[in-house]
Every structure is written in C-alpha cells, then in structure tokens.
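hey so u asked for the seq, here:
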Amino acid sequence: MWWIAPAVVGLLLLAFIGVVIGRAIAFKPKAVSVPVPVKVAFDRKRVEQNLSELIKFKTVSHYEKELEDNAEFERFIERVKTMYPLVHEKCELTRHGDRGLLYKLKGQSRGPCTVLMAHYDVVPAQEEAWQKPPFSGAIEDGYIWGRGTLDTKCTFCGILEALEALLSGGYIPKRDLYLSFAGDEEVTGNSTPSIVEYFKKNNIEIGLVVDEGGAVVENAIPGLKKPCALIGTAEKGIMDLHFKMKSDGGHASTPPAHTIVGKLAKAIVKVEGKTPKARMTPDTKEMFDTLGRHLNFGLKIIFANLWCFKPLLALLGKFIGGEINALLRTTYAFTAMKGSDAANVLPPEAEVIANIRIIPGETCESVVERVRKIINNDSIELYMTEELDPSPSSVTDCEGYEALAETIRECWQGTVVSPYLMIASSDAKHYSLISDKVYRFSPMSLSKDERSMIHGHNERIAVEKMHRIVKFYMRLMLKR
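ran it, structure tokens below
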C-alpha cells in the first residue's frame, strides 16, 4: 500500500491545478453598459483663452504665508466672477476658510447632492528651467503652457466652462450641485476642511464627490494592453517622521566611536531593511480583480488566484519597488538629512526625515511604534509632522460611482474603468470623513512624461485634452 500517499498527493496536485486553471478560464471581463455619448456643445476657443488667462495669475501657495501674494488670489477670484457670469448669476457663492469657494446650484428635487472639486493654487515654478515662462499661459503648437495646466486649474476651468455652457441652455441639475474650490490645497490649508465642516453642520447628504486623482493611463499593471481609467476610492495616509539625536558636539579630529550621524545612518539601514508586511486592501483587491480580467491567460492565472499567489505578488513588489509595491504596503522614503554646517565639526544635533505613505489598516501611531521597535534606540527622538491617517474606502456599488464610470466610458471609449488605492494625497480625504461616495479622478489621459510635469518643469496640456475635460464635466452634470 506504499503507493497510496503518493497517489493522494498527485490527486491533490491535479485538483489544485484544475481549480487554478478553471478560475483563470472563468476570469473574464465583466459586462458594462456604454450608452451612446450625449452630444454637448461649447466654445472651444473660449475654453483655451480662459485657461490661458487663469494660468497668468500667480496663485502660488507657500507654507511660509509671508511669501504668498494674497492680492493676486483676490484678483483671480474677481476675474473668475466676470469670466463666468451665468455661474455667478445662478449659483449661490459662499467663502470658507482662507480661500475656499463653494458654489451651490439648486436642483429640481431633494436628494443626495453632487460635489465637484478642484484647487486653484499652484506650487512654485523655477522659471529658468522652463522652455516657456511658467505663468505665460502661452498657446503654441496645440498646447497651453504654464503652472497649473495639469494641477489643477485645468479642472477648475473645465468645471466652470461646463456649467457656464449648460446654464446658457437652461440647465437645472436633478439634485443640488456644489462646486468646491480651494486656494490652499498644495499647503494642506483650511479651505476644504472648512467647507466640509459646513456640509457636516448643515446635514447635507452627498451622493457623489469627484476630486483630482487617478487618470486614463497606459500599462496600469504589467501586461495590461488596454488604457485604464483609475478612480481613487481611498488614499494612503502620509506623514513626515523625524529621527533626531543630540550630542556634545566637538571637533572632528577627536570623534567618539560612533557619531550621532553614524547612529542615525544605522537606524536608516535598520528601517529600510525591515520591509513592512503586505496588505491587500479592498480597493487594491478590486483593482486587481477588474484589471486582471483583461490580461493574457498566463497572468490571469495569477490574478484570478490571489488567494494562492498573493505572497508571490508581495515578494515581487518588495524587490522591484514602484507602484505595485506602494499599493501593497506602507513605504518609507528617507528624503532629508541635517547635521553639521562644517565638515570638520561634530554636530551637536542631527536629524533625518522619512516621508512615509501608510497603507489602510495602519495608522500614523502604529507606524511610529513599529519604527521605534525596529531602531531599538531610546536616544533617538521620533516625532511626526504633516501626519494624516489613511482615508476610509468609498463604495463602488452606488449611483454616483456608476454615473462617474459611465461618463468615463463615454469620453474614453474602450477604456477599462477600475477603482484603486491612491498613493498620493488630495483634499478629497476631508470629504471621506462625512461620505463614503468620494472619488479621485482627473478627467484626462496622462502619459508617464506628462505625469512628471505635475510639480515639475514645462507643465502643459494639449488643447484637445482640455476640450475633453469640459465634455466630461458637461456629461457628468447632465446625469446628476
């Protein structure tokens, strides 16, 4: 009877292979409805000229408030009022926080409202590194140039252009429509939190929030040939964790056995050598389930059987890093170190900073405690700045998400629409405190090079992409 054990093992192995292959065969794209796109009309030249003009306002936000030009922000707001007369005639405008603008257009009936978000502040630009002046708003060779053309004066302009065009035809939304704009998003200002507090205080029910976030991209995951529209349904937490040490200082000619800089370096090596545990959040799991159905059969075997191959995916992410790794675990990036001002002086104080992006399921406090155990050195002081826990996840089985996904399919036909965990940070996180219908999607297709322009040099947007942004918002508004 010696053959029984090998036979059982063989049968189990065959059963396992059968299950894995069977699941891969059944792992097919889900049927989605793609209605005939609604035809919308607007003045394309007007859109181009208005975005160009908005770019010329230097609405640059700074953490050091004395560097900001408040008068420039006010000039921008006043120009917006004259640029979009119907919006300001039909909507109620209230101001919140330092630079929050909230427009309300009353709907035909009561019910959960729609909130469309953007920010009109921008980050600084190093003019000498640009091919064209960053605040010129130049329109050349089919592109509009300038800081904010991608982040996010394009959507600010697109939302207002869409509403202005619809109002000229007598548009009234089905339910209340809000436009939520911030002039201090880049510096985590109080505008959007103040607006959210207004919603909370007035018990305003929300059916859909759309803010910047994912976009239409190629190669969303290895092997995916189709373009994919990624809708952020949650975002990772973020914090800067400071590692600080003090000493008596002294001259570098008579150093101690280990300087505080060396001890901090050792702490860095320890932290980087201890990879955080992989976590498959609901958002990432749904993304892999959606996108995996469009892969070749070999890759389908993996994504249809994550119950089995999740460790392999986590290991792959650990060694190659990048976006796959960031979707699966908390990440540490040591970005700054400060010590002595002179090479021959032992610093009395030294510090390193890690920018940490926190996976849902963990918190800022839990990460700090884990780091404290890893470095195992009580002489290193740890403290957080700019700390925010991960946002809650939004649902995808609701009218608001379906309206958003349907509009994307209308504007980018043949695109796979998928939720995902956003690894960056946005003002949408504030709305996540009062609603589970908050989505992060920038209505444009972006290449890797274009994504690098955001906060980088030579930021610009193709006029065709700007036109499509307006189409997107018009079609979305007509559904709401």
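The chain has a mean pLDDT of 94. The chain has 16 helices and 17 strands.
lmk if thats what u needed
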